[in-house]
Write a structure and sequence with these properties.
The protein is mainly alpha-helical and 624 residues long. It contains 26 helices and 10 strands. Strands 5-6-7 form a 3-stranded antiparallel sheet. Strands 8-9-10 form a 3-stranded antiparallel sheet. The chain has a two-stranded antiparallel ribbon with strand order 1-2. Strand 1 and strand 2 form a beta hairpin. Helix 2 runs antiparallel to helix 3, helix 5 packs across helix 7 and helix 18 crosses helix 22. It is globular and about 100 Å long.
């Protein structure tokens, strides 16, 4: 096989080999090109990051994959080949090697491993990159066979096999970020078309004035004077690089990501028609439709749906209309593209929600990872919130694999996937409603969301749509984490416990009973197997796995009340006393109601007593 590759390199006989055809069946990409447009597979392959014999070897491997009709997941296979090829070329050239057969030399391979380890890549990255070596071996490019890829990936990785979970944003930080993003959407949404018109004027005038003035400041001043119909009720910052528009895009992205739980790629698949509203069980459920590629064999995209909130519709329209001037300029550029397949692919990117500015060098129409990361960072910096001691403690609690990463006084930068995990965690831990209630009354949406993700199969079939199974699995995982945390606290940390089940556990703890699981892993195993279950109520927890949340917690035999839950009962008790005394003072003959109120007040007082919380005992003669 090495002889074949050398023959290809020295004679270039494969350069005119056709590797792809356009939609009309005409030859399009050739073997000798550095970029192959694979229209039938729906993606492109670039060899521009490779050089010399490394490039020719990888072209040979990729062509083998393309030609393999039995292989379903060609896109992921080619991606692994390219990424692995690039990193191993860097490692080999770093050891003064010139081709991949450097791997076969024992001394060279030892040096290669040292060089690879210095790259400080994660376990998962190395695990994917090492797949490239199996392609080299299977094609007989190298003779060295790696028997255990996981073991080698573990050796090369910077942090061993540990995989840091995506960040869950502490609640107060999330409320600051989400609240500001919602405020931006509400403030600028009514002026979205004016924003586009003003920016179009500004850019045109700036380009014209820059021909007259050498100073950017003078050109900008002239351009600002000639902007027509500036909106007076909103503050717009004009700059040629589009920094303010990037900030606006960051706010819109935050709202969409925070209140859907979508991945970054799925958010990028949304367009102007993605938002719809469905009727279910008497509720209007806002839904987003997009493409989900990750869970599917062969990377074939499928249509999927996510429940969301009404403000997401405004975020989408704001993004679309405020950037319409840029979208039109990109469409004008598309007119110069001769080949219809290239033009259609280009226009598909132009119709993305997240478009770039067409006059900036090196930009493509659709915003990539770096552009969106810049938008998010710009938006977060504009808020200026710095973590407090409480924020850091909550961060460490929610993100045990990242403990110590957030310091007091730091700004928490957010990665797109952080929104997904925060969505899952808060949906499970009943915090999503409080975030949705930052500025608007969206509490009812928490009911819709919880119902949706708890009963996806039923709802999805009812409204005839696909659902994000991965997100449902992630939410289920967070639910298990949450139950494990609560049980661990009850079994190990809680100094006082009340309620029938709480007293039983307290007594067993005092006796050192082995049925109380002290190990977190043991607790999680019990939760996973369904032998342990816990449901949160406003005044405590219920360990009945069949709990419907509507039972009488005052008499429930499965009831556990921790101290933090007991403290929330203080205000509930005050309200019950007021209600009881109002009925008495009005002379209403409602003995059943007043007896029930009195019994509930006494039950709460018993809980407060067991937790050693101060209160003044209520009796029927008390008046407030």
């Amino acid at each position: 096989m090495r002889e074949v590759l050398k023959f290809i390199d020295s004679n270039n006989i494969y350069d005119d080999l056709i590797v792809s055809f356009d939609t009309e069946g005409n030859p399009y990409s050739y073997y000798g090109s550095d970029k192959w447009y694979l229209w039938s597979l729906g993606f492109n392959v670039s060899f521009s990051r490779l050089s010399g014999t490394f490039k020719s070897t990888v072209k040979y491997l990729v062509h083998k994959v393309i030609s393999n009709d039995s292989l379903k997941s060609k896109k992921s296979a080619i991606k692994n080949i390219i990424e692995g090829a690039v990193i191993f070329e860097k490692c080999i050239t770093g050891c003064n090697g010139v081709s991949y057969d450097f791997i076969d030399d024992d001394e060279g391979f030892r040096r290669l491993l040292v060089e690879a380890k210095s790259k400080s890549l994660k376990f998962k990255t190395w695990k994917n990159n090492l797949v490239f070596l199996s392609h080299l071996h299977n094609a007989e490019v190298i003779t060295r066979e790696i028997k255990n890829y996981e073991e080698l990936a573990l050796y090369l990785s910077v942090n061993g096999a540990s995989i840091s979970q995506a960040v869950c944003i502490p609640e107060y930080i999330a409320s600051k970020y989400y609240g500001e993003a919602l405020s931006v959407i509400e403030n600028y949404y009514p002026y979205r078309n004016e924003i586009s018109l003003c920016y179009d004027d500004y850019v045109s005038e700036y380009l014209e004035s820059s021909k007259r003035y050498k100073s950017n400041i003078s050109a900008r001043r002239y351009a600002l004077k000639n902007v027509k119909q500036l909106p007076k009720k909103i503050d717009i910052h004009f700059d040629y690089s589009g920094s303010w528009l990037s900030w606006l895009r960051g706010a819109c992205y935050t709202v969409i990501a925070a209140f859907t739980g979508c991945r970054d790629g799925e958010i990028k698949s949304f367009d102007i028609d993605s938002y719809q509203e469905k009727k279910y069980a008497g509720m209007t459920v806002p839904v987003l439709h997009g493409l989900d590629t990750k869970p599917n064999a062969g990377g074939v995209a499928r249509h999927t749906s996510w429940v969301t909130i009404p403000s997401v519709k405004k975020a989408i329209l704001l993004l679309w209309d405020a950037f319409s001037f840029a979208r039109e300029k990109w469409r004008e550029k598309a007119d110069s593209i001769v080949h219809p397949d290239e033009r259609n692919a280009f226009l598909e990117k132009v119709d993305s929600l997240f478009v770039t500015l067409p006059y900036m060098r090196g930009h493509r129409p659709d915003a990539g990872k770096q552009s969106l990361a810049h938008s998010l960072n710009t938006f977060v910096k504009s808020i200026g919130y710095r973590a407090t001691k409480d924020d850091v403690q909550e961060f460490d609690l929610l993100n045990p694999s990242r403990k110590g990463e957030l310091k007091i006084g730091q700004m928490l930068k957010v990665h797109p996937h952080a929104f997904r995990r925060t969505f899952a965690v808060y949906l499970v831990r009943n915090k999503l409603a409080s975030l949705l209630d930052i500025k608007y009354q969206f509490k009812h949406m928490n009911i819709a969301m919880t119902s949706w993700y708890a009963n996806q199969a039923n709802i999805a079939s009812y409204v005839d749509m696909m659902i994000d199974q991965d997100l449902q699995d992630e939410i289920a995982g967070e639910n298990q984490n949450y139950m494990t945390d609560v049980f661990y606290h009850i079994y190990n940390d809680a100094e006082t416990l009340a309620g029938h089940e709480g007293k039983r556990i307290k007594n067993l703890r005092a006796e050192g009973d082995t049925r109380i699981y002290l190990n977190r892993e043991e607790i999680r195993k019990q939760v996973q197997d369904g032998r342990l279950s816990i449901v949160e109520h406003p005044g405590g927890y219920c360990t009945n796995p069949d709990c419907d949340r509507i039972c009488d917690m005052t008499t429930c035999q499965y009831k556990i009340v921790t101290k933090d839950k007991a403290e929330t009962l203080v205000n509930i008790r005050e309200k019950l006393i007021i209600k009881h005394n109002d009925i008495e003072s009005l002379g209403l003959d409602m003995p059943n109601v007043t007896s029930k109120l009195f019994y509930e007040i006494r039950a709460i007082e018993q809980v407060l007593l067991e937790h050693r919380l101060e209160y003044v005992a209520f009796n029927k003669k008390d008046t407030y």
